[in-house]
Amino acid sequence: MNQQKQVRRIKAMEVELRSREKMLGNGLAAMTDTELLAMLIGSGTPNESAIDLAYRILGSVEGNLLQLSLLGFPGLCRFAGMGIAKSSSVMAAMELGRRLGRC
Question: Residue limits of the UPF0758 domain (predicted)?
Fold first, then answer.
């Protein structure tokens, strides 16, 4: 028997639970770290949604955003679905946050 993991597609979610719609309706402060990271990632893979991928990445650093910011290309690209483009987006956002902290 071939049992495949059921991928939780964002388009299949209730509209008010989708990250962008949640942000527009409730503001950025209402979003979880996973949802914010998923928005940076943009899309998942055929086997995993962006939200699930973000959850897995954050889980690897035990939810520690400082540790996430230190992963770099090797650390992010080791996750299936995270290539140079998506990793660059995450790393750029982390750097902007770091620079904001210096203001």
Answer: 10-87
In a domain, 52, yes or no: yes
Confidence class of residue 75 from pLDDT cuts 50, 70 and 90?
very high
Backbone angles phi, psi at 61, to 5 degrees: -115, 20
CA distance 80 to 82: 6
Name the pTM for this structure. Answer: 0.81
The model's pLDDT over 18-45, given as tens digits with 9 standing for 90+, comes to 667 877 888 888 899 999 999 999 999 9
Do you know the residue count of the chain? 103
Q: Is 1 part of a structural domain of the chain?
A: no
Residue 3 in any domain: the answer is no
